[in-house]
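Hi team,

Filling in the usual template for the complex we talked about on Friday. All components are listed, including any nucleic acid strands or ligand strings, so the model treats them as one assembly.

SUBMITTER: L.P.
PURPOSE: interface mapping
COMPONENTS: two
RESIDUES: 762
SEQUENCES:
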Amino acid sequence: MERKNIVNTRYITFEGPGSQLLLDSGQKLTAVTIAYETYGNLNKKRDNTVLIFHALSGDAHAAGFNSESDKKPGWWDIMIGPAKPFDTDKYFVICSNVIGGCKGSTGPSSINPETKKPYGLSFPEITINDMLKPQKKLLEHLGIEKLFCIAGGSMGGMQALQWIVAYPETAKGAIIIAAAAGHTAQQIAFNSIGRYAIISDPAWNNGNYYDKSCMGKRPDIGLSIARMIGHITYISEELMHKKFGRDFINKNRIKKSFIDFTKEFEVESYLYYQGESFIKRFDPNSYLYITKALDNFNLSQGYKNLVEAMSRVKSRCLVLSFKSDWLYPGQQSMQIVKALKINGVDTTYVDLDLPYGHDSFLIEDKKLISLVKGFTGGLED
Amino acid sequence: MERKNIVNTRYITFEGPGSQLLLDSGQKLTAVTIAYETYGNLNKKRDNTVLIFHALSGDAHAAGFNSESDKKPGWWDIMIGPAKPFDTDKYFVICSNVIGGCKGSTGPSSINPETKKPYGLSFPEITINDMLKPQKKLLEHLGIEKLFCIAGGSMGGMQALQWIVAYPETAKGAIIIAAAAGHTAQQIAFNSIGRYAIISDPAWNNGNYYDKSCMGKRPDIGLSIARMIGHITYISEELMHKKFGRDFINKNRIKKSFIDFTKEFEVESYLYYQGESFIKRFDPNSYLYITKALDNFNLSQGYKNLVEAMSRVKSRCLVLSFKSDWLYPGQQSMQIVKALKINGVDTTYVDLDLPYGHDSFLIEDKKLISLVKGFTGGLED
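RESULT (copied from the run log):
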């Protein structure tokens, strides 16, 4: 049996003078911890780093296994490893958990050093731009000034977009997948109903549920509803129907003694499972803060328009969207591409014909892999 | 000031020997009440009746005003009235509330004659086909055997589909708008999350909330979440973005003393309002029963396939879908049309280029009006 590629999540806390994180809101966060993983080795020229940004429910664990007993590898293992697009024989790959998250980086469930209690809603509002700041600090800590490439899908793609505008001198290439320069009303609407479900759950208790002193539980129902809504939007109608169709869990439809309103169809059972597994691994307050950062994200803000914002970009760009992604439709990627092209940025755009919907970037596919590989290969010239 | 066209909702209760309603489940409902409205007059030949079917949240009040103080007319007033497609100078138009509903027809909030208490979950499971049965009885009561036309959008369209298969000898014409012969996994998924939100609301109390003895309230939060989810799916992404974009309610974004997770964007306020207004007029248990009937609807059931089911049809058909309707995409209407055409049924199909999404059938539009008018006019030949 092949030995698993074991990787350890590491943590860094920025402490001491000048280490405070100044947020876009003007508020400050002290003693910020960032969880991160690295794969491959930094070369002598310190110019082979690939910075990976995760999506809403992702974390620092992008590749390999954290222990021998782990059944699944990191969330972008299809991309990161020897001979893969982010080839760890060539590149030094870094992925960190965003602030506001709940996978090791400072977020609302972290202990506020001033009160010695979880932040809860005393955690300050954060932006996509704020998420980048500790990642930049982490790079400085690791002695890395220049990046070979940055990459991410969905919220990861938005971080990549923000990065090439905020730190235009740093990244040679940027891969922006299934993203947008700003949410549409519908994208905001889906997130907002999820947030409404969480804050309407009596167990949410205004964000103070960590000690389970209110009702003895967390707002799990609200979070699972939010996740179920999200999950519908992440996969294509076609894939969902192909997977589940109108199939019943109980194929013989044996009469039950009650009307089962939510677990009679296969697709219902699947969604319910998605909700149940999510509540075990995610913090409801983190869901509020991160989706709010997503909805507030507007790359044009502070500029006349998107074209002006993109005038700062110096990275070569690969922009990908998926024909079956109805949550982040191709036209949003087209807006990004147009703004880049108007500024003369070397940009490749492909609207990939993959059937999986928004989550296509997480699924192993030859076309996707070869496009990303081709782009990183081209950056080496 | 023009006097309003006042119409009264009427009620009929089927009582006495042989009046029980035998449901598809094998269960029986006694003393079923149906709320209905009529517009125009039945002619001497008794062949000018148009039967209108309402959608999920609709009711018997399809046209005119119930009182002088009513601000809005019935839900399909654009279609019903003098010189309108369902011309009340020519046709006798009937619309009734479905069983399982909460607008006057017997449903889970009605008093069970046996227990003298609201049915709650003791109300039997119903199907789209079951919804037709008391409507057929109502026609018999009114002395109507033949229908000039039947028509409906969304769930109303599904009732029309079921009608032309269940009672093929009755309707000369059938107008089926934005409907499907069976829900896809995604359509089931959206409804199911709404149901999950309702039954997870502690105030639902297993359907026993009518006396508010549990927590002093109804499962309003669950129902409003269900409605908010539904509402996103009823309107097009384009319309939603045109209406609200990324606009903030508080245009100057004056700093609040708290983070507002759900009511900062215009679109959030709009959805919240949709939820709030819905809970005032709809019964959460009715929402469960009716959406379940929608998800269970499968016109092919009991037949080899849809083509065989449609072999029963003798009505001339007009099938309409809307290009911007992403909930009930055109291809579902195409399936219906193909099955009708294979059977040689005289069928007209138009995929209308209206921008409003699934709810386009409720919005006044020249193209829509003239198509329906043209179809009813053609039926007169």
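MY TAKE: Residues 236 and 356 of chain B are 6 Å apart (CA to CA). Chain B touches chain A through 48 residues (CB under 8 Å).

Thanks, L.
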